[in-house]
Amino acid sequence: MDQTTAHHNVRLSPAFARLVARRRRLVVLLTLGTLLPYYAFVLVAGLAPKVLAMKLYPGSVMTIGWPLGVALIVGTWILTGIYIRRANGEFDELTSRILAGDAQ
Questions:
Q1: What percent of the chain has a predicted confidence (pLDDT) above 90?
Q2: What pLDDT is attached to residue 76?
Q3: CA-to-CA distance for 48 and 51, rounded, in angstroms?
Q4: Given a cut of 70, is residue 6 above it in pLDDT?
């Protein structure tokens, strides 16, 4: 079978369409999970900086902005890890089954 024909057949398969839809849905959710908190943080920093400048507790030198910023970074790493785990597990398995021709 010609490679171009094989690619065309894979792209037309319902299993491939389901794989693409599942992956796209995950990417959109993880992107929103990253960007919405980030932009909220930036908006608060720009529009209400006193909120992020509040001390963690009386007498503290650390403001609430620091742990929130760290949480944004760590949260992004976690969301990236979630994508990698799904891509290397579920999505790779589905791709292998589609290419083998036994996807349902």
A1: 73
A2: 96
A3: 6
A4: no
Tell me whether residue 64 is exposed, middle or buried, using C-beta atoms within 10 angstroms of its C-beta: 0 to 12, 13 to 18, 19 or more. middle
Amino acid at 13: S
Helix orientation angle between 92-100 and 14-47, rounded to the nearest 10 degrees: 160
For the chain, give every domain's residue range: 3-100
| Residue 18 to residue 73: CA distance in whole angstroms | 31
Residue by residue, DSSP assigns 23-80 as: HHHHHHHHHHHHHHHHHHHHHHHHH-HHHHTSBSSTT-S-BTHHHHHHHHHHHHHHHH
How far apart are the C-alpha atoms of 86 and 47, rounded to whole Å? Answer: 37
